[in-house]
Amino acid sequence: MSEPILEVRHLSKSFGANVVLRDIDFTVSSGDVTTVIGPSGSGKSTLLRCVNLLETPTSGEIRFHGKDVAARGVSPTAYRSKVGMVFQSFNLFSNMSVLDNCTVGQRKVLKKDAEAARQNAMKYLEQVGMAPYINAKPRQLSGGQKQRVAIARALAMEPEVLLFDEPTSALDPEMVGEVLAVMRDLARAGMTMIVVTHEMAFARDVSNHVVFMADGVIAEEGPPAQLFQDPQNPRTQEFLSRFRNS
Hints:
By secondary structure, the protein is α/β, with parallel strands linked by helices.
């Protein structure tokens, strides 16, 4: 059993009186592909935003290699360079070219020189099939192309863990496959990933651990074969029955 990279312990998050996450616990080890599934409004995206410190947890710990990065005085910038995020809405810089989108973080955060950043960006743009578009602006790209650039941008920071927040939900159906194919390749290559997704086939076939959330808690978790074939919690059973019947 490899050492855990990321441990979420007793994580809770409230917005005023609205409790969104309650006492969340899970562990991610090197090479794990953890998918987080559940109905809309169950707290999945808030969980991911807390893991990346885009939201400050109300209580609990987020340990990265054993160190609580949610503690006061810890710089989120250094941590986020190791735990990258791919957003539902791409979050590309609209005034920058594809190449510049993939080099700016390397230069500003990792302090790479321009040529080293360019070479690194090209490696990952080639990997996701976007090298021919390096001079394009985001407005000239399809949704699927934008998301592949966003994945390359995250990979160019060479993170240890990559978080995906519903990376296909803003895409037209015909573009979903091209993004999922890139993510499947990353999983096969051993990338450690946490993926919030409505793509049940991806969760079943690609991940090695599935977390089912409902009403701000983890209702059930386990290997995909167990969770999809023999769910124990009635909420999980109800949720997955819709997937099986679709």
